[in-house]
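Input (IBB domain-containing protein):
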Amino acid sequence: METRQASSRNNVCELEAVWALTNIASGTSELTCAAVDGGAIQPSVELLSSTHTTVCEQAVWALGNIADDGPEFRDNVISGDAIPHLLTLVSSSIPVTFVSNITWTLSNLCWNKNPHPSDHTVKQMLPALFHLLWHPDGEVLSDTCWALSYLTDGCDAHISQVVDTGVLPRLVELMSSSELNVLTPSLRTVGNIVTGTDHQTQLALDTAILAVRPQLLTHPRPSIQKEAAWALSNVAAGPCQHTQQPIACSVLPPLVAVLENGELKAQ
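Output:
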């Protein structure tokens, strides 16, 4: 009985300690730096193996806050071996709120491109992100799509890694989502992909992305019109066969309508 009570007290202490670190790391960069300099990362990673869900989830949150503060801290969390633990957790039977928290942390580990996360890191995370694209929860889908948008932002090698997983058909499906927090990052990801090589753009075109574009150009949100027009501009900037495809898909009339009546940024 005493052993059980002592264990319970230890769990409470762990929870309160990692909760305090979470709050500190949610503050200014100076506070996050102080937490990292104080050695917060490794104990938080160790708590990802806790048998107590509340302790484990709080550790995920703490590491997500640290990784959110820039590429240096992101890489510190990665080098602390957090990713294998996070991937183990996301494949287990845990509440949807916990899955959402893990997905948000994974997206933070994909964020920042100065520098991008390493190829090895991307390869580690992509299978889990691919799996999460079919999750029924909107918040999980949103953070998964944002993670993919970060990985495809300006790096042809990472665009290739993402495209090679076979995510494009699912991303095109999500571009028809009625949930703005899913539509926006899925559209951004596909828009990033068509900034890549001609081959990568062709792969996106082969998944019928242009069939979705006219309705996005007439979307009530100007931000969606702008993203759709930006993606089309990158398709049109390619070789002749790419330029002709938007014309063949009747994209010009809604595009001209945005130019005539849309908000300035969309125009």
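The mean pLDDT is 93.
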